[in-house]
Amino acid sequence: MAASPLLISLASLLLLGLAALGTLPGAAEAARAFFVFGDSLVDNGNNNYLATSARADSPPYGIDYPTHRPTGRFSNGLNIPDIISEQIGAESTLPYLSPELRGERLLVGANFASAGIGILNDTGIQFLNIIRMPKQLEYFQQYQERLSSLIGGEETQRLVNQALVLITLGGNDFVNNYYLLPYSARSRQFSLPDYVNYIISEYKKILAVSRRVLVTGTGPLGCVPATLAERSRDGSCDVELQRAAGLFNPQLVQIINELNNEIGSQVFVSANAFNMHMDFISNPQAYGFVTSKVACCGQGPYNGIGLCTLVSSLCPNRDIYAFWDPYHPTERANRIIVNQIMSGTTQYMNPMNLSTILAMDART
Ligand SMILES: *[C@@H]1O[C@H](CO)[C@@H](O)[C@H](O)[C@H]1NC(C)=O
Ligand SMILES: *[C@@H]1O[C@H](CO)[C@@H](O)[C@H](O)[C@H]1NC(C)=O
Q: Residue span of the signal peptide, if any (predicted)?
């Protein structure tokens, strides 16, 4: 991946954390607040405000967005948080750095995600100025102070406790760290299983410090167009990166279960984005895609090399491609993923899906 100046991570295991399930009666009327943390899969424009190369603020990004303009989302249209907002009946959150995020708009929640970041501080260093997890959590505190001066401390606490939180993290710790260079510092320091243990232990600290909510994981890193272009001879998924995801994801589920046990309630929910992606990667035609190997926008083999820009080759119909750019799904693929988040079985959502959570909360 050294040759690609590239971005970002991969679809993943997303974790939805829900704080204080349904403790306060009567609060279910207004759409609940939504907070988003993580990387490019969920960034909706924070990096537009930063001096970084990890950005999606020029065409053809956003070509199918309602405004048909780039927004900073790494998608042709909507991304996963947008579609979740749609499902819970809320407007999309604004990027935390947007000057429009003030007044009443604060009540909707906020998106703190930043393309290029990972669990580790040294992930994505080539992107320079991005919002790493400690900073995202600091901004979340700052957000609460700002909201507090608007609606008071008690109401702020209530809004935050009842919010839905999404965290998508981990893919970049592989593609933009361990596997970034043939002999990366981290790969010289750790064998793959030891590296996974290390990032999982760091992840658990992030989850532990950020209250009772949150977050993360990695998708089929070996199957995205960027990986196929860089590492695959025959178009089959790269075994090494699939192995990395295969080691990481089960351990993530394990720490989620541990945290839930420690807390004594199902605060954390893990979404198995690996399985969600593998469905349409293994059988794209069954999902109405002509291919899951070739990105809609890019260049070179599988359109998997470099950035998606105005000079890239661009597919005419984004709805029949699983991947928009070398790393990120199309809006249509994001909709398939969110459908599983909403109503998937335990093979996808553990311990329960989002519609079950919403129904439980509406009852209490
Ligand atoms: C990451 O950076 C923050 C400060 O920005 C620091 O508090 C934290 O300990 C660092 N994490 C690691 C694992 O070095
Ligand atoms: C998930 O959601 C669907 C639709 O709301 C529901 O029927 C189903 O039982 C749920 N599955 C699990 C495993 O929770």
A: 1-30
Q: How far is CA 256 from the centre of its chain?
A: 17
Question: Is 319 considered catalytic here?
Answer: no
87 lines ligand 2 (CB under 6 A): no
Task: With a cut of 80, say whether residue 217 has pLDDT above it.
Answer: no
Taking only the tens place, the pLDDT of each residue in 110-148 is 999 999 999 999 999 999 999 999 999 999 999 999 999
Q: Is 124 exposed, middle or buried (0-12, 13-18, 19+ CB in 10 A)?
A: buried
Which neighbouring-strand residues pair with 321?
291
Active site residue 68: no
Separation of alpha carbons 78 and 92, rounded Å: 10
Q: What is the pLDDT of residues 161-177, one digit of tens each?
A: 888 899 999 999 999 99
Catalytic residue among 40, 114, 232, 292: 40
Amino acid occupying residue 335: R
Ligand 1, pocket residues at CB < 6 Å? 121, 134, 202
pLDDT at position 31 = 75
- Residue 170's nearest CA partner among 319, 290, 11 is 11
Cβ-Cβ contacts under 8 Å for 225 (sequence gap 6 or more): 293, 294, 295, 298, 302, 303, 304, 323, 325, 326, 327
- What is the length of the chain? 364
> Ligand 2 pocket check: which of 347, 353, 361, 363 to mutate, most ligand atoms within 8 Å of Cβ?
353
Nearest-CA residue for ligand 2 atom 6 is 343
**Span 18-72, pLDDT tens digits:** 433 333 333 334 678 999 999 999 999 999 999 999 999 999 999 999 999 999 9
Give all domains of the chain, ordered by start, each with its CATH number. 14-271+351-363 (3.40.50)
* Tokens read off for 170: 């981990």
